[in-house]
Amino acid sequence: MNRLYIDPGTGSMLFTVFIGIISAAVYVARAVIIKIKNSVGAGKKIQADKNKIPIVIFSDHKRYFTTFKPICDELDKKGIRTVYMTMSPDDPALETKYENITAEFIGSGNDAFARMNLLNARIVLSTTPSIDVFQWKRSKDVDWYVHVLHSAGDVTMYRLYGIDYYDALLLSGKFQEDEVRALEKMRNLPAKEIVMAGIPYMDAMLERAKTTEKKQHDVPTVLLAPTWGQYGLLSRYGEELIRSLADTGYNIVIRPHPQSFTADKDIIDDLMGKFPESDKLHWNRDNDNFEVLADSDIMISDFSAVNFDYAFVFGKPLIYSNTGFTKNLYDAWRFEEDPWNVSTPRRIGIELTKENIPNLKQIIDDSIGNTSLDEARNEAKNETWCNIGSSAGIIADYLADKYGELSKQDIPEETEEKTEAAAEVSK
Fold first, then answer.
1. What is the reported pTM?
2. Do 302 and 227 contact (CB within 8 A), yes or no?
3. Both 188 and 258 in a single domain?
4. C-alpha closest to that of 224 among 212, 211, 237, 213
5. Do 264 and 324 have their domain in common?
6. pLDDT (tens digit, 9 = 90+) per residue, 280-308?
């Protein structure tokens, strides 16, 4: 029995050695487990990165292909794999052939947004506002969201929080950047990356206009092109306005905003029934508005951004109407002054009021050929349309550079393993 006796000093030493052996074994076991876990996790990450689409262009309607096409042309030249995802089954993108760009219809409504919410991509470019506000959510597997404007004018003319949760904005005028920075400060948001890019579809429209021969008309062709909603011209003065136009004896083309046929369907159906197609009156629903803009002599609108396409690209006279627009539903409500889209028509056009609708023929006659507002149009054009003719190249260069930057930010597999192992062992 005495042979089994261990004095306290020796026992303490042996216990310490035993604990050391156990600790070393635990350390080795943890290291092995971490190595196995990391090898599996790293494999998943590598596979995920292999499946990550470099650039996705997301379009919620076929009418935005006029914005995206010039950008697609430039991206295709750069050889960057891009997937164009559209919610329109008849989007022109689906029929356009590229070497490095594929287009696919991803469904409509919630089906499309569900697809976007689970997307695995490096960069998403879109004109669609309100990401992370309504159905469309930021995917955890998308690294960078970029918004490009689909028209000239304010970024505050989106519904509330329209651009808050994008990472980058492609703008066309200094006043837009000022609006964005002011909203960020008000809402305590991180600063977005801003690129003064320009307006791709207006660049393309300008190129087409240079080579389009002006048609000659026996009588003026008047284009009525209002926005949609309760403050649009057709909602406010529809029947009275169209009747006054018909009484002029001029050629009348009515082109409602595409959204009108959904949001204002009852109004549009009623007006189309009262004023059917004739040799002097035509309802236009073309996806591309270039032909009706180029072929008309004067345009009547409200606060629609088409005002600026018409005035800046074609340099033609504009008749605008202040239809009682309210800022309440838009980011513009945070600012005391009127939005640029609302204030600028006063500088570059002739106002139409409810009271002078009966005198519309005289207003049209006085406006056609009047050059007194040419200087004001040029000033407004310079405020909102930078990099004329080169925006698509600037945007493609930005996307290519950003893709390269984001790709380099991936943490190497070995670094991930060492970092996690060190964290586990230190527990």
1. 0.80
2. yes
3. no
4. 237
5. yes
6. 999 999 888 999 999 999 999 998 889 99
